[in-house]
# Entry
Amino acid sequence: MTATTDFIAELVRAANEVAKLQPMERGRLLKRAIATIRNMRDIVGFPTSGSAADLLIAMAALAGSAGSMPDADVRAALLEAAGMIRDRRIVMDSKIEVIIKKARELERPTS
# Structure
């Protein structure tokens, strides 16, 4: 198994045993997941929206107060993070090139 696969498994395991996690461990796992997702976004070339719709922004807010959040919310965030990492790993392994163009560039006729 790779480090990424191991981390995905760690997140799923933690989600299944969230009641056993110490408050600091909850936040640490979420912050580590956020850093991993951001790194993978950069490698793959996924743009970040920077808007409130960006799940990482919501996840970062949760990570800061994960110790006092209900178990169900932390569980959902851990599973969401595991899914996001898995999805990005699939894209990375497939070696798909992500090309982002602005809408106006797409509208211009090419000569």
About this structure: The chain has a mean pLDDT of 81. The chain has one domain: 3-107. Helices lie at 3-16, 23-44, 55-64, 71-94, 103-107.
